[in-house]
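FORM 12-B: Structure-to-Sequence Request
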């Protein structure tokens, strides 16, 4: 059976600086009120106009792989596990932006 191809995308979130210079704290606010938190390496974070300064949270994105779809939601793999569950989470398509390359 052929392996399903993962689609690379950007998941909208908020980020702030982590403990280490290459680390960011990621906050994913879901429409149902749940908040997922994780850490991500700087190479996995996509910034908009502003980059997070120390003690500041900014709108950004984190690189994810879309691995499936369930009941109108996208199943995505985050760069790392969240603090409350694993790496694989369901998010609404409105929070995800497609990207052409990995």
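FORM 12-B RESPONSE
SEQUENCE OUT:
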């Amino acid at each position: 059976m052929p392996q399903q191809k993962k689609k690379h995308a950007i998941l909208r979130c908020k980020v702030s600086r982590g403990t280490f210079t290459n680390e960011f704290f990621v906050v994913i606010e879901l429409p149902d009120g749940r908040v997922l938190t994780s850490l991500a390496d700087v190479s996995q974070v996509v910034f908009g106009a502003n980059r997070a300064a120390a003690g500041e949270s900014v709108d950004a994105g984190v690189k994810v792989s879309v691995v499936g779809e369930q009941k109108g939601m996208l199943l995505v793999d985050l760069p790392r596990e969240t603090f409350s569950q694993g790496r694989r989470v369901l998010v609404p398509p409105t929070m995800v932006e497609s990207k052409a390359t990995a």
